[in-house]
Fold this protein.
Amino acid sequence: MRPLLTGLLNIALLLSNTLLLIGPLLLIALGKFVLPGQTARRACSRGVMWVAEFWAENCKRTFALLTPTHWDIRGNAELRRDASYLVISNHQSWVDIPALVQAFNRKTPYFKFFLKQELIWVPLLGLAFWALDYPFMKRYSKAFLAKNPHMQGKDLEITKAACEKFKHLPVTVVNYLEGTRFTPAKQAQQQSPYRYLLKPKAGGVAFVLAALGEQIDAVLDVTLVYPGKRVPGFWTLLSGQVPEVIIDIQTRELDPSLWQGDYENDPAFRQQMQRWVSELWQAKDNRIDELRNERS
């Protein structure tokens, strides 16, 4: 009974927080479209970010009040709000999002995700994502692309166009290289060479770097680990049944050569990018093993 009551109270408080702030968020966002001049529009963008950070901080307070979860955050002490970052993280659960909020809210610029297009229809949140300039991605199956070859590369075009909006303010761009949440079934289907990860995709991060490379101050290599036998779902977190989450952050310098090539048309550069991603992913797989062994 206690987990049920905790979960319901969490939902009520998080929903109230969202309902209270969605109006101001959308009103300020509207100013980006109706106010003249870049200065006013950038001020609106900062205002939207401030509201989003205030919302996220309230969410953190709610979790701290109602749940016993210990957020073991490592490596975020030296982060800055006036810098721009590329966050590269493994992805296992909807709990990953609150974990990033715990680690980065008011430590870095408010982060931007690349979202599935279907999420724009989620009540309230879809409007908030739109106001925050989150790019919505439409993923096409191989069968669809075979019938419609003119749609090849549209996702990457959207990525590049979305990043253009981020050039005038500090930004934290989150990229899940696996493209989907990890499950053992997906791991087996892919025949992934990693113990705890799916195969990474280099194309999306290549286009983010092509658009924002000179602006990015560092890569934040985030490794999320949930000690225990099962990866928790969002309800498990809301109902107070997640004892601990490890959020390991390693700051890595970005080699300028990684944004100075043509991923689509230069095979040598594409191979360089894929090699960089593979090495990063192998190191992450090893790091997950180390962190899991700490708790065994």
Summary: Strands lie at 70-74, 85-89, 111-113, 115-116, 136-137, 172-176, 218-225, 244-252. The domain at 68-294 is CATH 3.40.1130 (Glycerol-3-phosphate (1)-acyltransferase).
